[in-house]
Specification:
With 133 residues, the chain is α/β, with parallel strands linked by helices. It has one domain: Carboxypeptidase-like, regulatory domain (Immunoglobulin-like, Sandwich). Helix content is 22%, strand content 35%. The chain has two helices and eight strands; from the N terminus they run αββββββββα. The protein is elongated. The termini are far apart. Keywords: Signal. This is TonB-dependent receptor.
Length: 133
Amino acid sequence: MNKVLSILLFLVTIASFSQNSGKIMGNVSDAEIENEALLFASVKIKDTPNVAQTNFHGNYEFENIASGEYTLVFTFLGYETKEVAVSVKNNEISRVDGALKSKTIAIDLLSDEEIAATEKSKNTVSRRNSSLK
């Protein structure tokens, strides 16, 4: 009888621990091109080692996340990083989608004078005086 009671208590304890976690899932897409899925974008739970990559449909998922408040960090090459707060509750799925905007890249164009000066310096040849013995 004592053995059965111990096993029952153990199972109840395990069940209560398994309920102290939730799930985070969502989609990462391009905010400017008809919400097109971003394949292999990174989603990180800030200040934790948890990182996920999106699949071919732009979906990601974190399982067994302890209940609490977190910040998700969405990153993708050529796009601005985005941070979103999320609340994880026991036995619930928190859905967080991230629509990323592409980065603006500034290009410094050379003026005609700078190009001409560069071309002139490339065509300049210096001559050394040397005597043959």
